[in-house]
Amino acid sequence: MKTMRRSTYCLLAAILAIPAFAGPMLQDEATITVSYPLMSGGTYTAMETRNYNGTNPSDATTLGDSPTNMSMFSSVDVFGRRAHVAQIFPEVIAPTESLLTFAWYKINNSDDYFPGIAQDATVTIKVEGIHFDQPVQFHEDTFLFHNLWDSQQFETAILRGLFETNVHGHYFHTLTDPFRDTDKFKQVPGEFSPDGQMPHQTLGDMAPYITLLGDGTDTLGFIAEIPYMFFAHPHEMHDDSMGSDPYDGLPAPQGFLEPYHFHFETLVSAVPEPATLLLLGIGGLWFVRRKDR
Fold first, then answer.
1. 183 pLDDT higher than 50
2. Is residue 10 part of a domain?
3. Secondary structure letter of residue 3 according to DSSP
4. What pLDDT score was predicted for residue 22?
5. 170 pLDDT above the threshold of 50
6. For position 293, what pLDDT does the model report?
7. Distance, CA of 29 to CA of 26 (rounded, Å)
8. Is residue 18 part of a domain?
């Protein structure tokens, strides 16, 4: 009888745990809002919905009305820096996790990202209504903000003395320090800089600017209130004694070279149900006791 009871507990635990070994399923579309103050007064606001079917930059579509220069797409599991790292280290995305990515690109790389943006402005980005089929939790230690510069513009900027020759045209900012899987990110070319090299990542500096919404519910979201200067490459230099304008012909409305792409990404996973945790615990305890006999 005891053997049957133990077997029943283990079987129930295994059955209830099956949904936990797959990433949560997305439903509906997310609402994307970008707003920023204008030099002329007032605020520019773009608000649209997006599904999660994007896979690469060609899937980005215009966000907002004229004079917008933004396009964007959303994706799940297939795009982002963690997805790139996972090609070499699959363990950075567990089977129970989903990678959410929200990516922006310039429509015209030679134009300003945020036309008419005010000096010292804050760009507010809201992603709301990320609806799942079950309660879901953020993994805050995987949340990052990535900027990428146009390669030709960046090479021009290097020739004009705005960057050292060993500077890369991308930069990472994370929500937490430590950041999960930092060691793996440092081992993959094009990601975090290895120890001993000029760093192209700052860990934990996004914390003051990110508000996570709905953690632990079936509808997540976040608000990013990013100072416009955060879109500048931290290694950019500008010597006012330069004889000519080093930004001539480059998109630099506030005195720094703008990136042409940025995105936010984070892992999420389903919140384990109490019954599943209890039965898994019972099953695990039985196996431990059996092993000790």
1. yes
2. no
3. H
4. 64
5. yes
6. 55
7. 8
8. no
**Other CB atoms within 10 A of residue 85 CB:** 22
pLDDT reported for residue 274: 65
Q: Which two three-digit tokens encode residue 193?
A: 């800089």
The band of 182, judged by pLDDT with boundaries at 50, 70 and 90, is very high
DSSP the chain: -HHHHHHHHHHHHHHHHGGGGSPPPEES-EEEEEEEEBTTSSEEEEEEEE-SB--SGGG-EE-SSTT--EEEEEEESSSSHHHHHHTT-GGGS-TTEEEEEEEEEESSTTS-SSTTBPTT-EEEEEEEEEEESS-EEEEEEEEEEEEE--HHHHHHHHHTTSS-TT--SEEEEESSSS-TTHHHHHHSTTSSPPTTS---EESSTTGGGEEEESTTSSEEEEEEEEEGGGGS-TT----TT-SS-TTTTS--TTSSPPPSEEEEEEEEEEPPPHHHHHHHHHHHHHHHHHHH-
Is 14 inside a domain boundary? no
In a domain, 12, yes or no: no
Q: Is the confidence at residue 118, as pLDDT, over 70? A: yes
Please give the Cα distance from 71 to 106 (Å, whole number). 6
Q: Where are the beta strands (DSSP E) in 70-121?
A: 70-76, 97-106
Residues with Cβ within 8 Å of residue 144, at least 6 apart in sequence: 81, 82, 172, 173, 174, 175, 179, 206, 264, 265, 266
The per-residue pLDDT for 23 is: 81
Instruction: Count the domains in the chain.
Output: 1
Between CA 259 and CA 170 the distance in angstroms is: 8
Domain range for 259: 27-269
6 C-beta neighbours (distance < 10 Å), count? 16
